[in-house]
Amino acid sequence: MADYSIWVLEYAECNKNPVAGVVYGAHDKGTCRLPYAYVLIKGNGSNAMVDVGYNHSEYGETIANEFGVGNWHSAREILSHAEMTPEDITHIFITHAHYDHMGGIAAFPNATFYIQERELSKWVWAMSLDQRFKMLQAALDPGDILRAVGLAKSGRLVCVQGDRADVLPGIDLHAAYDTHTWGSQYVHIRNDGKDDSEDGWILAGDLVYRFENLEGWDPQNQSYIPIGFYVGSTTNNVLVLDEMSKLVGGEHRRIVPIHEDRLHERFPSRETVDGLRMTEITLADGETSKVA
Ligand SMILES: [Zn+2]
Question: Distance from the CA of 206 to the center of ligand 1, in angstroms?
Fold first, then answer.
């Protein structure tokens, strides 16, 4: 019995991202394609997403250009490949406030958004610093923080403090403070509905960028290698990898990195538009494949 279907939907890409930017210390590994994606979760009468991408206009476009990100397509276009519209989305779990995860707020008029309260407050603090602290403001569109406050004003923001179980039946939020960002969180779907799930899936946000973060470079001697870009501590970034790993009984394929170019090697997948992919992580009972 599986309650939820999960798809990873690429909506943009960077074709030459330094591997060292995503895998700690990989300064000799050149560049890689880094897809930009969000996650659609459908089941139990709800349509949820993990993150919403960014809007390729105004400051969102400026940051994207700085990071070499292009081939952007709207959420309306990308979701249509899963027979969904932005208006259909009811719940959105924001893993962190970087522009490419939270910049698309305005496209989803009916959704309630969930974010860690610490993520918002620490970004407001970072925004208050002068330009010498630019490093601490990287990948943020301050307009997104204002848009999140707007959601609060209209009753569509839930500020989460720490872990929260069953935000939807069988879906938990886990805080990961002082890791990739100050108030990152990840999403754990217990797809059999059990507390001690044997069918768990983790949507990792940017706590995992590439398979190497969980498995290392040597398949015979696997080890954790933290991500290559964070404001928290190296230790926290390693420990959260182990925490996620334990939640899924050590089955690393159940921890889904949305920036991973090789997801299609482990899951069914198809091209949607202009070389972007849609990858089917799992299907709920009775749901039909969108990639077959
Ligand atoms: Zn990020």
Answer: 5
